[in-house]
Amino acid sequence: MGKTLTKIDAIKTSGLDEKTFENYFKNANEFSSLPRVRKGRFLFDEDELKRWGEDRKRRTIELNFEDYALCLDFALAQHFKGYVLSDWGTARQREFGQKITNWVKGQLGEIAVKKFLKKEFGLEVELDFDIYADIVPQDIIGVFENHKMRKPKIGVGIKSSKPKSAYLVLSGNEIKLAERRSDIYIYCRPDIPDDHLLRLTKDQVIKAVKDKPHFSKYKDLLPDFNNIPCEIVGWCKFDELEEVSSIPGLEFENGTRFVKKSGELHRSKHDWEKLIKLL
Known about the structure:
Layout: E1 4-6, H1 7-14, H2 18-28, E2 43-45, H3 46-58, E3 60-63, H4 65-81, H5 96-121, E4 125-127, E5 140-145, E6 148-150, E7 156-160, E8 167-171, H6 172-176, E9 184-190, H7 196-200, H8 202-209, H9 215-218, E10 228-237, E11 242-244, E12 246-247, E13 250-251, E14 257-261, H10 269-278
Parallel strand pairs: 7-9
Antiparallel strand pairs: 1-2, 3-10, 4-5, 5-6, 8-14, 9-10, 11-14, 12-13
Helix pairs in contact: 4-5
């Protein structure tokens, strides 16, 4: 056991912002506090937090501009195909920027998994970036083995959410309908900035507004495009998910969802080796 940390020091050690730390600690079971004495202050073990941070770093993949461009191309194809997307957990339809961000985020997770499996285990997989009339549940469509690509032995779905999200969440239809269900779900947390489209079009934006009255107030604040980190959080089998009507901070509309706390997903090196054997 290492040094005992106060909550403030634990947040600094974790490298997380306070809100994300709270969510990971209270809702996700990412890490635990030391036993409390008579409901006293939350205290943390420095060594445990450092081990958690080192493992998280190992599972985080840097995605570059070419990765992003491939995902943006897919998102735009989905948009112009007329696919309708609703807000997560609700029935509200999303506007253009939200839809594009959601699709880009989902595809970034898939590329991150592909790169993670190659980097950590030397396994090459093929992803499905085609556009279909209906949703296709399986995201890994090929496994390179014995100098050739073969079909996976199981169905794998790759799901992405925001970095602060504490749960892998799937809709009822994704689990209850056999034709849509995957055997395994891999959960990712790509850290894509909300203003990614602005970063992409920065030069054009500057050209459009450089002679406008307020440009001097924000010209030095316009962000550049940077690599996008994506945490490969872990995986679970579909029958390890729990059916619920809500999670902390969100009541689901139109029925239940199937969820798993991020800290309870399989994520050790041995766990990933088990998954590879199933593939």
